[in-house]
Design goal:
- By secondary structure, the chain is α/β, with parallel strands linked by helices.
- It has 6 helices and 5 strands, in the order E-H-E-H-E-H-E-H-E-H-H.
- Helix 2 runs parallel beside helix 3.
- The longest helix is centred in the C-terminal third of the chain and has 22 residues.
């Protein structure tokens, strides 16, 4: 399950999408009351990822306590030294400087989305060890982009990323 509040709701929703694409049952809750209700039915076989910039929101700290009471594991994506990080079984630290004049958590939200992407790729590769070869360029060539006619390699074909030929491509295709 993925929990977040406010501007970080999109992080939880993006995570839900990615993990469902991997075939992992998941849900994103962005309402604190639903988070508490959902946490009350968790078991020791469940994992909850909680995303918060400050890691200090009382609602998320309360739900983290409920998750812990139920025996589920907590992965926290938050600032170091925050109360949420201290409650987590796994801490994914995101420290950053935000431009407070905009009143929008742009940098933080992008960093949280990046952490979700990295987590999804790690889980995908862990579930299918054969995908480790994709990092070295092995892929199904039938699904790769056409090679340009020019002998000079195009930047698009030289840039790192996820090929449509790889099993990880389903994480990025919307």
């Amino acid at each position: 399950e993925f929990y977040a509040i406010g501007h970080y709701g999109v992080v939880a929703q993006d995570a839900q999408f990615k993990f469902l694409r991997l075939g992992i049952p998941s849900v994103a809750h962005t309402d604190s009351r639903l988070q508490l209700l959902s946490a009350s039915v968790l078991s020791d076989k469940d994992v909850v990822v909680i995303s918060s910039s400050s890691g200090r929101l009382p609602e998320l700290l309360e739900v983290a306590e409920k998750v812990r009471e139920r025996g589920a594991k907590i992965i926290a994506i938050a600032a170091s030294h925050s109360p949420l990080i201290r409650k987590a079984d796994v801490a994914l630290i995101v420290d950053h400087v935000e431009d407070v004049t905009t009143h929008l958590p742009m940098v933080s939200r992008i960093l949280h989305l990046l952490v979700i992407d990295m987590l999804a790729v790690c889980v995908a590769m862990g579930r299918n060890p054969g995908t480790a070869g994709l990092m070295s360029g092995e892929a199904d060539e039938r699904l790769a982009e056409a090679t340009p006619v020019s002998k000079k390699p195009a930047a698009r074909n030289q840039a790192p990323g996820v090929s449509l030929a790889s099993p990880l491509a389903k994480l990025t295709s919307h």
